[in-house]
Amino acid sequence: MKETLIICKPDAQERGLIGEILGRMERKELKIVAMRMLTINRELAHQHYEEHVGKGFFEELVQFIGRSPAVVAVVSGEADTVAIVRKIVGPTDPADAPPGTIRGDYGQAVTENLIHASDSPESAQREIALFFPELSNL
């Protein structure tokens, strides 16, 4: 898939790292093809994190993602954009993320790890439709 979704989470916005995160995508020759800043409400958070419903950390995820504005973007590239973006982002736990990745360089905790990136082409398609429904009509 040539498109994927990223979310610069509230901690990225609060720490002034949105430009750095988006810049890393662009320096890898990925294109930002859609972007918006919003505060993610509970309903949208529930839809986004639906695979985690019933897990002990679900409510913490929902509260965190909606605590302040986030930047949601569709990123496009020539190859497997999902895999490329996931490499740029690094593992979920910043303690396991190597230097040079977003989470390795800036992450502070598993619960506040700066960025979400779709984990598969199927997730990317679902998440893009969720945050950018107007793109499916183009």
Write the layout of secondary structure elements.
Layout lengths: L2 E6 L1 H5 L3 H10 L3 E8 L3 H7 L9 H8 L4 E7 L4 H9 L12 H5 L8 E3 L3 H11 L7
Antiparallel strand pairs: 1-3, 1-4, 2-3
Describe the structure.
It contains seven helices and four strands; from the N terminus they run βααβααβααβα. The longest helix is centred in the C-terminal third of the chain and has 11 residues. The chain has one domain: Nucleoside diphosphate kinase-like domain (Alpha-Beta Plaits), CATH 3.30.70. Strands 2-3-1-4 form a four-stranded antiparallel β-sheet. By secondary structure, it is an alpha+beta fold. The model has no long low-confidence stretch (mean pLDDT 95).
Q: Count up the domains.
A: 1
The CATH class turns out to be Alpha Beta
- Give the termini distance in whole angstroms: 17 Å
Major β-sheet annotation: 4 strands, antiparallel
Rg, nearest Å = 14 Å
Q: What oligomeric assembly is this protein in?
A: single chain
Number of helices in the DSSP assignment? 7
Keywords:
138 residues, alpha+beta, Alpha-Beta Plaits
In brief, what are we looking at here?
This protein is an alpha+beta fold and 138 residues long.
